[in-house]
Amino acid sequence: MSSATNHEILIDTPIALIEEILAPWKTQIGADFDGYKNHVYRMVHCCFALSPAPISDVEKQKVCIAACFHDIGLWVRDTLDYIPPSLPPAEKYLQESGLSEWTEEIKQMISEHHKLTKSDDKTYPLVELFRRADLVDFSLGIVRAGLPRHFIVQLKSTFPNAGFHRMLLRRSLRWFVRHPLNPAPMMKW
After folding, report:
1. Vertex 188: Cα angle to 30 and 110 (nearest 5)
2. Cis bond leading into 125, ω under 30°?
3. Which of 40, 132, 133, 170 has the fewest CB atoms in 10 Å of its CB?
4. How far is C-alpha 121 from the geometric centre of its chain's CA atoms?
5. What is the distance between the alpha carbons of residues 57 and 23, in angstroms, rounded to a whole number?
């Protein structure tokens, strides 16, 4: 595929786990649901493609869970400072699914996904993979992290933006008017 990966990545839709996790959130997310779900799918596929080796089924499951919850705080608290309110729903899901042993790793993936610098966490290598995957989609593919352009084009075609980035811009502008000294609370160094 590219120097970013030594394995073929197929675009998979639907992914049952993503559909199952996001379904109960459809009403709360409302008009933004398709855009968010497609962002989750694009991000998950970027994670799979960025992995230096074929990603295991357990790793795929962790990535899907973290992706479903990573921005959910936008709707839980209607805030641009959405990382802290994204954590409790993920923790609750893990506990209810008998996956509590993954809590710290999933929390790190969510907490660090807007980190501007590389994550050096050797304990949880998925954290850096997840961060890079979100950056690829957040940047609309301008930052490709080594992924081939045709792969990103195919992802965007399979999972259209559906207003996701427009919604982020609208919320960001609304936040900035109220919090000009803290314009991007979700970003970390």
Report:
1. 45
2. no
3. 170
4. 18
5. 22
Please list, residue by residue across 114-137, b when 16 or more beta carbons sit within 10 angstroms of its beta carbon and e when fewer do. Answer: bbeeebeeeebebbbbbbbbbbbb
Task: Give the integer Cα–Cα distance in Å for 95 and 91.
Answer: 6
Residue 117's identity, in one-letter code, is: T
Q: Are 171 and 80 in contact (CB under 8 A)?
A: yes
Count of other CB atoms within 10 angstroms of residue 43: 27
Q: Which tokens in the block code for residue 124?
A: 């949880």
Do residues 145 and 132 lie in contact, with contact meaning Cβ atoms separated by under 8 Å?
A: yes
pLDDT tens-place string over residues 160-183? 998 887 877 787 677 677 776 766
